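@channel anyone free to eyeball this complex?
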Amino acid sequence: MKKNKLLSMIIAMMLAASMLVGCSGTAAEEPADADAAETSEEDAGEEESADGEETAEAAEGDPILIGVSASITGSAPTNGMRTEQGAQMAVDEINAAGGVLGRPLELYVADDGGVQDTGINATNLIASQGVVAQVGPTLSGLALAVEGLVAEAEYPVLVGATSPKLVTTMDNPWVFRVRASDTIQAQLAATYATENLGCSKIGIFTNSNDYGSGARTVIEEFLTEKGIEFVTESHNTGDTDMTGQVLRLIDAGVDCVIVWTDDAETALAARQFYDLGLDVPVIGSTSISTPQVNELCQPEWLDNWYSCTDFTTSNDSEIVQTFVQNFNEKYGEDPELYAVTYYSAVYLLKDAIERAGSVDSAAIRDALAETDGLEVPIGTYRANDMREMIHGGTICKMVDGKAEFLEYVLVED
Amino acid sequence: MGSIIVQLIISGIAMGFIYALVGIEYTLIWNASGVLNFSHDKLITLGAYIFGGTYIVGMQLGFVEGILLSIVTVAVIGIIIAKVIFIPLRNLTMIYTIMATVMLGKIIVEAIRLYWGPVPFSVPGFLVGTVKINNIVISIANIVIIIAAAICVCALQLFLYKTKPGKAMRCVAQNRNASQIMGIDVKTVMIITIIISMVICCLIGILVSPLLNISTTMSNMIGLKGFAAGVIGGFGYLPGAIVGGLVIGIVENLASMVFPAVYKDIAAFVLLVAFLLVRPKGITGKTR
Amino acid sequence: MKRIANRQYLWIGAIFVVLALVPLFIDNNYYITILNQMVINMIVVFGLNFITGLTGQMNLGTAGIYAIGAYTSALLSKNFGISPWLTMMAAICAGFLLGRGLGYPSLKMKGVYLSLTTLAFTEIVRIFATNLIDITGGTQGINDIPRFAVGPVMLDTNTKYFYFILVVAVLVCLLSIRIVYSKWGREFRAVRDNADAIESLGLDIKKIKIRAFTLAAMYGTLGGALYAHFNSYITSLSFTTDLSINYVIILMVGGIGSILGNMVGAVVVTLLPELLRFLGDYYQITYCILVLISALFLPNGLVSIYGKITGLLNKGSSAEGGE
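replying in thread with the prediction:
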């Protein structure tokens, strides 16, 4: 009992001390910040040396700080890990090659936890570090939550979020989108289903979250315009049993299904489609072609599946293959969508900083808005009026459970 | 249309047995220690990771060895958790017990992420495939789950009514203080119960892994619905959990015929609230 | 007894004064945002304290209540252009109805049932908020929720908004103190400590519980509304069971049943994960372990430490005096 008391006192002291630190944060604010920044740098540095890579010595001078908002904890941890890996790899490469404007790049990574409050705090924290720009968050809900903050802090942010709402409901000169929006991807899927596969009755099966429901709206509009019959079914994130939905699709007699959902649910859908005998061509979001989903599926589940994606490792263009090889050497795995998104985003920033000739955030913003034809593994960046960078997508076919590159389609807007 | 309804009912029964096992697993701990174990879904996840992550994918063992070793590992973890968390909790009021188990769950999730990494995975070739009778499909994993649930309940009933430790468990469930006075070592009984509950969690995790894949969030929903199953069947009464689980499984699947499927999860929770309102004793009318 | 109460008021006042002074020294948006979150959490937990703290009924429905407050105020003010002052009143009314409506069925039963019903309630609200996309915007949420003006002052910066909600928090705190030391407060505590005695006195336990729950719901919806107008953006992703749990953590870490404890809890629990960020990958797990330990070993919360320390000191000095 005595031990308990002692322990409780110690814990109490710790908790109380944390409160004191918080209250005295007024005075100790600056050093605390510096600490946090240093630790995260050290972390990153350690990871590298563990990988046997050399930390960049090529570039000298004060580092240019770039913020990263990644969902490291919470409901989408894979996402956060890949984001960090991709961005870190780009930074290492750039630094090894002499940095930007003769200065090295440096990342400041903050966990957004995949939830609104933590995400807001993460972006505020990044903003208070004096970064010149930020990459992430990826979740559309978070991107919408923090867009006002970066407008206030006045630095550009490159988000991998794809919700159409990021274009339709806001006009923020600081927010750039570095992935093909769902509008483009979903249109691509619907076009491929109707034109290349010649389907006439389409089932739409989407997640009820922002990702799925945004795409659903686009596909429905597209099909209504073309006068093609369709039925829609949805499921919630974390659903485990989709029997009801699948049976209704079968019952409706669809000859093709467009699936738009996240990784875990895509794998579940693949199994249940196969098990319940929904044997029609399936076209889906980028999830299907990511290695993490392929790992979860038996190859036969994915027979006759197609994927509309930003990126596939099977694209044999030189820039993609070099990237895939380097990523494999560094992390021992194939890269996937989030890694390539933020790898490319960092290169986009480098390009913009060089064209701006300074690290002034407004100058970088203007340079970003003028990006035209930058070749990166995820595609060709060209900024339009809405600050969207990517205007096309890749169609893949699943063969033996692996994505195989079919074609890259450019959508004009 | 008819075959759709039959298929929905079959799938509902299959899911229902999962909920039932979840209901049993947390009811055991509730009965023995009066702690509502909010970390139970994470313990299920942990079981799946130990089996899939360490023994099968990591050490490339066979499935049978993998399952046996997982059970042993989980039992050891169970002893630790019992001693560190559940035994100190048994005399605290509910708010502390609930919060402590919630935090235990969060710690498990973070530990999983740090130890096994955040990328979901599956166990190749484990219980995959389906059985088809006419147009009705049921996956092999579900059949195994149904058999496992039946065995679990029978074994537990035998254990509780025919063996000495089992009888002690029942005494403790009825009246902890009186059992103590009667010379039953309440702490040991609690440890045994928690080990049994943990082993069931581990089995659930292993058996649902082909259905749900292995990820940190795999068991969130079945955890919640397992709670509902326990209450609907009759809180604290083990066979009741099976009844409750089946009711939820079937009702939610049939609900997806009537309402948009995204609202089917609500069915379980509405049933839960409705039962609490009208018949708090549950369908079987037996609580402990 | 009276001296303890007086000392408590002193501390409560001190915390409010310190909070009010903080923005004078820092204008970093990161800290100002955390301050806002802290005070909003405080308001919600003042409410939760009635039902879970004083009355001892475990409520895991706070996220659902909070969500309903946030959506009520956000939708009314954004879609119909009603002044946020009125929509916040509407949110509080919604809280009142919710407390009555939900309190009746869930408080019929004792103990663990309430936690399960309220848990189910949170899930139901979340699923509806996610899927009624035409109304709530689903997980894409509602943006451009208007901020508002107090008299001639537009609350356009986070600092101004902070001072506004701080005033609200002080008012709410005074109300709480008033209630805690009134007949209602004594009844609440009696339900927790000695339910049988209450019944023998001919009081209706259920009514008392519903009253406590309704208060909790009204504070909760007010907090939700303040939150919606603070962030100008809400999404159904925020209103999960984890959020409900977070409020109970605040209550527990601070000290159950004590208004001072609620405040200390809100300050510590809102700050702690942010302060732990320097641990990198391990910050979440460290946070969880600290909270778990506090549940196991510090059942009376942080406010009990003060008493323990003074108790030890007194013992020490009296022992010395005896020599």
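from a first look: Chain C touches chain B at residues 52, 56, 58, 60, 105-106, 108-109, 111-113, 115-117, 119-121, 123-124, 127-128, 130-131, 245, 248-249, 251-252, 256, 281-282, 284-285, 288-289, 291-292, 295-296, 299 (CB under 8 Å).
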